Amino acid sequence: MLSRLTRNRALALSALPVAALFAVAGLAPLPFAIAQPGSTADVLGRDKGREVITVTGAPVRETEGKLLMTTIVATGPSVDNDFATVADAWFRTDRAVLPRASVYPPGKSDAEVAKHNLGEMKQSQDAAVLAALGHLDLNPKDVKVTLHLADIGGPSAGFLFSLGIVDKLDGDGAGGDLTGGRTIAGTGTIRPDGTVGAVGGVSLKTQAAGRDGASVFLVPKAECSDAQAELPEGMRLIPVSTLSDAVSSLRALEQGQESRVPSC
């Protein structure tokens, strides 16, 4: 039998490789991006001195409420997060740990990723204009819509752009503000036919919306459960599948027709 001293030495020696493993893990870069709630922008307002939505060829109405498009921010494709940073983020409700390849195209530099995201934003803006004008039965040849939002990339603002265009041109259909004077936030991609698509990061976006004063959040229907995960107190979730869904829900909310307003 080993003496107590010998056993203690054996235990101490066997622990060394484990301690070394944790030390290496704590320093080694891991293939994860860390995301958190980002900025919001009112698509009915101004950005860096310019109107976010500019319309020519049709009368534009004044709006009182806000329509906030929401974002998340993530550590860049060239940022290596160590074990301690990832572990800390894993247990925080205002952070999300994501496989880096699910956030950024593999092998792309920061500049290439930024260019890709701006390209997606341009495509989503074009789709947003077509969806909104189609909803209002307006001819894109007669009505020109210009969208401006600096330093934001990706396709997830498309749905809010469409909703903002509808509010500026038609409001609630009876001359009133589609938002009812509220601060309403949301997220979602948009297709030219008005279909709203999922985007990811919804639980972080609801936190950004709550931080910036939103009381209602429009969420792609497929992401209802994700949106409920860290929902700020008092925030109302409204699921949408199409632009028409969103317009109908907001009109019903403004008119006090609660039974016509869906919920997650």
Named CATH architecture of the largest domain: 2-Layer Sandwich
CATH structural fold name of the largest domain = Ribosomal Protein S5, domain 2
Count of all domains: 2
Residue fraction in strands: 15-25%
Largest sheet: 6 strands, mixed
Spans of 5+ residues with little confidence (pLDDT < 50)?
Answer: 1-28
Write down how many β-strands occur, each being a DSSP E stretch of 2 or more residues: 12
What is the name of the CATH class of the largest domain? Alpha Beta
- Between the first and last Cα atoms, what is the distance in angstroms? 66 Å
Give the SSE string: HEEEEEHEHHEHEEEHEHEH
Measured on Cα atoms, how large is the radius of gyration?
Answer: 24 Å
Oligomerization: single chain
- Give the overall shape: globular
SS summary, helix count: 8
SS content category: alpha/beta
Give the spatial strand order of the biggest sheet: 6-1-5-8-11-12
Proportion of helical residues: 25-40%
